Automatic annotation (TrEMBL):
Signal peptide: none annotated. Transmembrane segments: none annotated. Keywords: Hydrolase, Metal-binding, Zinc. Residues 64-399 form the Amidohydrolase-related domain. This is Amidohydrolase. InterPro entries: Amidohydro-rel, Metal-dep_hydrolase_composite, Metal_Hydrolase, MTA/SAH_deaminase. One of its GO terms (molecular function) is metal ion binding. Pfam families: Amidohydro_1.
């Protein structure tokens, strides 16, 4: 059924054009594709009957395209708040890894359900993930209905599912083949990081990604420790190293890129690498460096935003991440013009980087004291709003959230998921 959103106060499109007092019509074509029309009197213009339309009230609301969370580890919702304010290595070794090793596929599925619900509630309509048991994440995302680039994690010392690297790489290829033709799922090859994957591993991952024409998703230059270790071991910095083994390219999605030189930024631009900025996680884990936003933009690097896992953020709220991003770069450069509203908004809407067209619509409820008055709606979106202001979410022409209620998941299902999650986390050791 086509959808008409009537009497919107404001709308912002993917090119950040601003509209006032407007209607939006979502029409489904013969091949299932969604076309978005903006204007007034659209029913008359397209000769549509009210009975053939789903009509949504847009009064006192603002429509924006779907938000995209381009680097995350969704099932880490299970580890949210288990340990904060710790040195990164200690945090990983004493709290995160020991507890993660206890997770089963079913546990990961419930973590994924919880995370996908959280993202949907916050207006995030597409994500790019990397975590063990990726088929469980596919299952969770399909149930909730949001779009996911799901990475099959590759790491030299194995995963809970595959201890042997050869078996793991074969399973990776099988995973890619199995999900190649899904509508809302994009399978991705996800070598973890240059310090946990050998040259050989990266090359094999690249071969799989090329053969099936799917993205590669990796962590890159997240910490100073990583850079020093690579320099000592290989004599190159991480970006230079990936260039030397032929991994830099248009299909590479690189998370973080915090500790990079100007030369490395130039390479990222030249090879058209997609960089995902995770300012909240970088600040919380005290990675020290700051992704060089100004230099990245100057070199034309494709930039987007990610929350990283909910254990280092601690939520999946891209509206909040926009504000963190804007503030971090102003403080870092002593320049309030850096990280401006349009720049961070376009980063948050960039689902193209992870392979999804953005035909999604998110409505923000403006009937809240913190969103009045409206001098500049884009300013309110970036600096005043948060995920809780999302009221309605339409993904690929399906209304998945309406008036802050999930359409596919009833209250009883929701309660069942929370109960299950509470049961799963009982096995964790919390010190
Ligand atoms: Zn990460």
């Amino acid at each position: 059924m086509d959808i008409l959103i009537k009497d919107l106060d404001y709308a912002v499109d993917l090119n950040l054009n601003l509209y006032r007092d407007i209607d939006i019509l979502l029409r489904r074509g013969d091949k299932g594709e969604i076309t978005i029309h903006r204007g007034r009197n659209l029913m008359e213009k397209f000769n549509l009957d009210r009975r053939d339309l789903k009509i949504i009230e847009g009064n006192r609301r603002c429509a924006i395209p779907g938000l995209s969370n381009n680097h995350t580890h969704i099932p880490m919702t299970l580890l949210r708040g288990i340990a904060d304010d710790m040195i990164l290595q200690d945090w990983l070794e004493s709290r995160i890894w020991p507890n993660e090793s206890k997770l089963t596929g079913e546990d990961v599925y419930y973590g994924a359900l919880l995370g996908c619900l959280e993202m949907l509630r916050f207006g995030v309509t597409s994500f790019n993930d990397m975590y063990f048991f990726p088929e469980e994440i596919v299952k969770g995302a399909k149930e909730i209905g949001i779009k996911g680039a799901v990475g099959f994690p590759v790491i030299d010392f194995g995963t809970p599912q595959y201890k042997d690297l050869d078996k793991l790489l074969r399973a990776c290829e099988e995973f890619i083949k199995r999900y190649l033709r899904e509508e809302k799922i994009r399978p991705v090859v996800a070598p973890h990081a240059p310090y946990t994957c050998s040259r050989d591993t990266y090359v094999q991952c690249k071969e799989i990604s090329q053969e099936y024409n799917v993205p590669l998703h990796t962590h890159l230059s997240e910490t100073r420790y990583e850079v020093v270790e690579m320099e000592n071991k290989i004599g190159r910095r991480p970006v230079e190293y990936l260039e030397s083994i032929g991994v830099l390219g248009e299909n590479l999605i690189a998370a973080h890129c915090v500790w990079v030189t100007k030369e490395e930024v130039k390479k990222l631009g030249r090879y058209r690498v997609k960089v995902v900025h995770c300012p909240g996680s970088n600040m919380k884990l005290a990675s020290g460096g700051v992704m060089p936003l100004v230099e990245m933009l100057k070199e034309g690097v494709s930039l987007s935003l990610g929350t990283d896992g909910p254990a280092s953020n601690n939520n999946l709220d891209i509206l909040e991440e926009m504000k963190i991003c804007a503030l971090l770069h102003k403080a870092h450069r002593w320049d309030p013009r850096v990280g401006d509203v349009d720049t961070v908004l376009s980063m948050a809407l960039n689902s193209k980087s992870i392979g999804f067209e953005n035909r999604d619509v998110v409505l923000l409820d403006l009937k809240s004291p913190h969103l009045r008055p409206v001098h500049n709606i884009k300013s309110n979106i970036v600096y005043s709003a948060n995920g809780n202001d999302v009221d309605t979410v339409i993904v690929d022409g399906e209304v998945l959230l309406e008036n802050k209620r999930f359409s596919r998941i009833g209250d009883r299902d929701l309660e069942r998921i929370y109960t299950k999650v509470d049961r799963v986390v009982k096995k964790f050791e919390v010190q």
